[in-house]
Specification:
Blueprint: H1 9-23, H2 30-37, H3 41-48, H4 51-71, H5 77-91, H6 104-115, H7 120-145, H8 155-174, H9 178-195
Helix pairs in contact: 1-2, 1-4, 4-7, 5-7, 5-9, 6-7, 7-8, 8-9
Length: 202
């Protein structure tokens, strides 16, 4: 067999990520991946490991993309409002990006609910939770420092509550039930308004 031609690792991971994203872990075979990437199985194993390790590499790549994307958002309380506003837009196909409507992590999490390969479900939960908690906590702290949120708002509790709303939102939007998605968004706005400080103009 001839030597495999060199390839762009990031571009290859992106192609594989979209296969897992579109078809799920179980329905994405190594044969399909080889066909899409034009790589041989030995090249895949040498570069990424087995299918599970390949999936984790895609998860890491997705997380890095999401962190870069979220870092472009406004800071403080505006981050929270923009985050949930964009969830609504993406679920209704109003986003300008080229990603599928639903979240890769939530798609995979739903698939693994009944038959998670080894510890993938746990890893998915931890990775997504930690990433969101980091961004929400940072935003809440900035909002409190800027005087946009009351000092009485418990940073940790509010961040965790927001994450549960993200999971609930993703669950309903994946079922195309926009009525409940809209209700969750309205509930988030109401909860934030409870702690938001109305500033008087000088």
């Amino acid at each position: 067999m001839g030597r495999q031609i060199g390839f762009n690792r990031e571009e290859t991971l992106r192609k594989i990520l979209f296969l897992f994203w579109d078809h799920g872990y179980a329905n994405t075979s190594l044969e399909t991946i080889c066909k899409k990437t034009k790589l041989t199985k030995p090249s895949l194993y040498n570069s990424f490991g087995n299918k599970e390790e390949l999936f984790l590499a895609c998860l890491k790549n997705y997380k890095e993309q999401m962190e870069e994307h979220l870092n472009s958002y406004p800071k403080g309380i505006d981050f929270i409002y923009k985050f949930f506003s964009n969830l609504i837009k993406e679920s209704k196909g109003q986003s300008n990006n080229n990603r599928p409507k639903s979240c890769f992590i939530m798609n995979s999490f739903s698939e693994f609910m009944s038959h998670a390969p080894s510890d993938l479900k746990k890893i998915l939960t931890n990775e997504s939770w930690e990433m969101l908690e980091q961004f929400f906590k940072k935003s809440i702290k900035i909002a409190k420092k800027d005087g946009d949120l009351s000092k009485d708002a418990n940073t940790s509790h509010l961040a965790k509550w927001l994450i549960t709303q993200v999971y609930a939102f993703r669950g309903w939007s994946s079922e195309q039930n926009h009525k409940y998605s809209d209700e969750i968004y309205a509930q988030v706005i109401r909860e934030m308004k409870r702690y938001e400080i109305t500033k008087t103009k000088p």
